[in-house]
Amino acid sequence: MTTSASLGVREAGCDAFVRARLPQLVKFARALTGDDHAAADLVQDALEQLIPRWSRLSGDPEAYVRRVMVHRRVSVWRKVRRERLTDRLPEYAVSTPGHDEELFAALRQLPRGQRAVIALRYLEDLTEVETAKVLGCSVGTVKSQSSRAMARLRTLLEEEES
Amino acid sequence: VIPLEDRLREALDHPVDVRGEELLVAAHRGVRRRRARRAVGVSLAAMAAVATVAAGLTLTAGDRARTGPAAPSTPTPTPTAPEPGPVEPSPGYVMSTTSTGDALYMALLPCAEAVAADGPPGSSRPHICADDEASSVLWRYRSGTWEELGPLPGGVAGIVLSADGRSGIGVDWWQGLWELDRLPLTRDSGRTWTELELPARDVSEVFVTSTDVIVTTWRDGWFAAPIGSDDWRAVDPPAADSAGEHVLFVVGDRLVAEFLGDQIAFDNRYWVSEDTGRSWDGPRRFPGLHSSIHGSTTSGLVLQCVAAYHVPCGQYLSTDLLTWQELDLPDGLQDYPLGGTAPVRWDNRLVDPSDGHTLCRLGAGPDAGWGNWTAAGGEMFATVFRSYTADGRLIEPTRRRGTEASTFTRTLMVSRDGCSTWEPLFE
C-alpha cells in the first residue's frame, strides 16, 4: 500500500533529478519547439508524465523524458490558454541574451520530425543509430530526415541573409 | 563562415534561464490535476458506456489522455448538426482555415465570455475572449454567406479535407495526431463526425482520399482502411532492390512512394499506385540525379531537381505523375520550396504553391506573419493577429505573450479586389 510518506520520498528523488537536469531538458525542448515558452510547456507536460512513473522507471530517466517530449506535444488547450490568458501563465524559461533567433526561426519552419532529429544529433550528440532508437524509426529515416533538414535550414538561412 | 553544424551546436546549447522550482511546482500541480481528472473521467466514461448501449451513440473524439478510457470502436455518427442558415459566427478565436477551392472552412473556438474592445481602423465587431467554450465549431464561407456546419470533436482545431471536399479528418492545434489514438473522421464536409480507431500508436502522418484513410507510422509501416470502416489492411511499399525506405505522398486519390536509399541521401526513383497501394507502377524516374519531392499540391507534385555534385537544376511539376515540367520561376523563387496547398507570400505577392505563378500583388497589408493565407471562391483570405484596446492602452502583438495576450486575437481578413485592399471578415 502506498503511503503519503513513501510517495514523498519517491517524488523527492524525482525532484532532485529534475533540478539537476532541468536546464538541459529545457534546451532539448527548445530545440524541438523552436520557442522558449512552448519549450517550458513541453517540459512541464513531460514532467507530469515522469513524476507518477518515477519509481517504476528502470532505465535512464533523462532518456525517458526526452522520448516523452519527442513523441508528445504540448496539449492543445494549454497552447490555447497561452495564446490568450498568459497573464495567468508565468514564463518559466527564457533564453539568455545572444540567442540565435535567426536560426531558431528557421528551425521552427521544419517539420517536427526533422526538428527532433536535429535536436538529438546536434544538442544531445547522439549517433544516427541512437537517434533512430529514440525516435523509433530506421537509421535510413534518420539519415534522410537529417539531410533534408540541413538542406532546408541552409536554404532558409541563405534567404534570410540575402 | 561558421559551418551550419557548428552553428547548430552552439545555438542549441545556448543557456536558458529556467525558473526551475516554479516549473517543478507547476508539474506536481499538473500531476494532481491529472489524477483528479482521471478519477472523474472514469466515472464519466462508465456513464457514457451505459448511454452508448442505451442510445447507440459513441463518444466524439477527444483528448483521451485527459478524459479517461477509450470509447467503443464502432464508428457511429454524432448527433446531426444545426440546420444551415443565414447567420454569422459568434465571437470567438479563429483556430484554423482551409479551402476546397470554392469554399473557406473556419474552425472557430467560440468565446464563453466575449468582451467588446476598440479595434484598429476598419474593425466592425472587435472583441476579445475572457473565457472559451470547450470545443470548436466548424463554419463554411461560400459566395458571401456563412454556414454553421456543426461542432468539432473535442481537441480538434482544424480539418483536412479530401480533394472532393466531402471526406475529412480532424487535426489538433499542431496539425498532427500524435496525441490521438483515434481519428476524428467526417464524410459530409464536417457536419457529422465518427471516430476511427487507429491501427498503431506511432502515427506519423494521416492522409484521406475520396475512398480511403491512409496512415503511415514511424515503425509499423503503412495502413489503409475504406472510409467508414475500421478494417485496416497493411499497405506494402513497392519492392526496391537496395536498402532504404519509401516516403509516401498522396495526390488526389493516387499514392506516390518516393525511395530514399540508405547509402545516399536522395534517390531519383518513385512508384505510383492508383488502387490505394494494392499495386505499384514503377520505378519511374525524376529528372536530375538526386532530386526529391518538395510536396504535394491539390493536383500534382513539385520536386526540387538536383544534378551532379548536388547542383540545383530547378523545380518541376507533374500532374500526371509520369512526366515533369520545369517551372519557369523568377530569380529568388527558384530556391523557394514550392508545394502544399496554401498560397505562399514571396516578394510582396502571393504565389500559387503548385507552379509559382503570381496570384496577386499585395497592397496595404495585411501582415500575416504568424497567420496563414487561403484562396477560396476567387477571394483571398488571411488570418492575422491584431491588437485591440481593451483597457485604455494599445499593446502591439509580439511573440512575447504577456499581458497583451488578452488584448489581441486572430482576425480573418478578406480581399475581394486581388489583394489590393483588405477588410475584416470575422473578428
In short:
The complex is a heterodimer of chains A (162) and B (427). Chain A has helices at 4-33, 36-53, 61-70, 76-84, 101-108, 112-123, 128-135, 139-161; one strand at residues 93-95.
Give an overview in words.
The complex is a heterodimer of chains A (162) and B (427). Chain A is an all-alpha fold and 162 residues long. Chain A has 8 helices and 1 strand; from the N terminus they run H-H-H-H-E-H-H-H-H. Chain B is mostly beta strands and 427 residues long. Chain B has 3 helices and 29 strands. The chains are: A mainly alpha (162), B mainly beta (427). Chains A and B meet through helix 1, helix 2, helix 4, strand 1 and helix 6 of A and helix 1, strand 1, helix 2, strand 4 and strand 15 of B. Strand 1 (93-95) of chain A pairs antiparallel with strand 1 (16-18) of chain B, so a sheet runs across the interface.
Features:
heterodimer; A: 162 residues; globular; disordered N terminus; B: mainly beta; 3 helices
Q: What does the largest sheet of chain B look like?
A: 5 strands, antiparallel
Structural class of chain A: mainly alpha
Ranges of chain B where pLDDT stays below 50 over 5 or more residues in a row are 37-85, 173-179, 393-407
Give the oligomeric state: heterodimer
> Could you say which structural class the secondary elements and strand pairing of chain B correspond to?
mainly beta
* Total number of beta strands of chain A: 1
Give the averaged pLDDT of chain B, no decimals: 75
Radius of gyration of chain B: 24 Å
Number of helices of chain B: 3
Helix content of chain B: 10-25%
Termini gap of chain B: 46 Å
How far is it from the N-terminal to the C-terminal residue of chain A, by CA?
Answer: 65 Å
Strand content of chain B: 35-45%
Biggest sheet of chain A, open or closed, and with what strands and sense?
A: none
Share of β-strand residues of chain A: under 5%
Query: Globular, elongated, flat, extended or rod-shaped: what is the shape of chain A?
Result: globular
List unreliable stretches of 5+ residues of chain A: 1-10, 74-90
How big is the Rg of chain A?
17 Å
Query: Number of helical segments of chain A?
Result: 8
Number of strands of chain B: 29
